[in-house]
Amino acid sequence: MTPPIHIQNVRLIRPGESITEGSLLIQGDLIESVDGPPPVGAEVVDGGGRLLGPGLIDLHTHGIGHFLYERTPEEILSASEMLPRFGTTCALPTLYRVMDRASFGHLTSLVGVLDSARGARFPGFHMEGPFLALPGAGADCLPGDLALLEDLISICKGKILAMSISPDTPNILPVIRRLKSEGIVPLITHTRATVEQTSLAIEAGAVHATHFYDVFPLPAESDPGVRACGAVETILADSQCSVDFIADGVHVDPMAIRCAIAAKGFRKVLLITDSNIGAGLPAGVHETPWGFPVKVQDGRGARVEAPGAKNHATLAGSALTMDAGIRNLHQWLKLPSEQIWAMGTLNVASRLGLHDLGRIEAGAAADLVLWNDDLTAHTTWVRGRVAFPQ
């Protein structure tokens, strides 16, 4: 039997509550106790006064480094081993081009490797579509189709944790209700929905918006000089709804995050990356499977490297990692640090129903990160085992 691990001389992050000096005992894949003495035979780890908190959880990510989740099962497994270096211990690989019936064989192969991930855990997929109103970065835009949905649910064998939908997609309300009945979290996005359409989607059970502000254009102006209200205002005004942001300073202005916190409080604001190929890589040009390279540059995200358009190239997804997002939020927000940490841990786990994650307490999963002073990962544990450094 693996001996218990006692991590001492740390500042424990209890997300949303406090940061206090203490210690923690890992037994197997769980937190056994907090602030107790080390048992005889325990491996003792001196944290050097560093922060120790639950691992970061990313509910919206398409890839990391050179790996694209939906390309091959092998890339899913390789991405899992890369993520802990950024303090991410759990993620939902996000798919957007493999939900049609012609792709079911490939989707089955992706489902089959999730439980084999040896780095960050992958409890299930986030499907960005196919029932969307606006395509964004090439996602499918199909009307609500319960037959297709049932096929996806069957093929994925309980491995769909979230599905992005648009309130203005035809026949979407039965889809939202079916997702809720299956325990799948509907996420509002890619929408130009009206107040009424958004309100009906919320009433049906869609109470979270992903990559908020991005692909959320206003409804068409019907009365010149009168600013139209739509999904953004309706979501901000509804107390049931939570939202998440790509906190890279490129996809959304930090002011929008401050606005959401003012409307909802910190517990209903979440951090995501929406990361893709290029995330976590050094600045420079990187090849992709899409027929064009992307250029990663600090402060500009990942952009299509197109001849003659280098200064105005189109965004090619996000190059954000979760640790960088946390660092940005600490810079932008005048909130207690424990509240900011909740946005990447406890708030995400609570929205997804992953109640053993995102917490520092006895019985919670031993998915932990010991942080350097610059908020880069020093040591990452997943299921009680060191996942970084390897």
List its salient traits:
390 residues; alpha/beta; Urease, subunit C, domain 1; TIM Barrel; eight-stranded mixed sheet; 10 helices; 23% helix
Uncertain spans? none
What class, by secondary structure content?
alpha/beta
What characterizes the major β-sheet? 8 strands, mixed
Portion of residues in helices?
Answer: 10-25%
CATH level-two architecture of the largest domain = Alpha-Beta Barrel
- What is the top-level CATH class of the largest domain? Alpha Beta
> How much β-strand is present in the residues?
25-35%
H/I helix tally = 10
Here the CATH topology of the largest domain equals TIM Barrel
Tell me the number of strands.
21
Cα-to-Cα separation, first versus last residue = 21 Å
Quickly count the domains. Answer: 2
Mean pLDDT: 94
Which value, in Å, is the CA radius of gyration? 21 Å
CATH superfamily of the largest domain: Metal-dependent hydrolases
Shape: globular
Give a summary of the structure in a few sentences.
This protein has 390 residues and is an alpha/beta fold.
Would you mind describing this structure in some detail?
The chain has helices at 73-82, 104-111, 146-156, 172-181, 195-204, 231-237, 254-264, 322-332, 337-342, 346-352, and strands at 5-14, 18-27, 30-34, 43-46, 51-54, 56-61, 63-64, 67-68, 88-95, 125-128, 160-165, 185-188, 208-209, 242-246, 269-272, 284-286, 294-297, 301-304, 368-371, 377-382, 385-388. The chain is α/β, with parallel strands linked by helices. Strands 1, 2, 3, 4, 5, 19, 20 and 21 form an eight-stranded mixed sheet that branches. It has an eight-stranded parallel sheet with strand order 6-9-10-11-12-13-14-15, with helices on both faces. Helix 5 (195-204) packs across helix 6. The two termini are 21 Å apart.
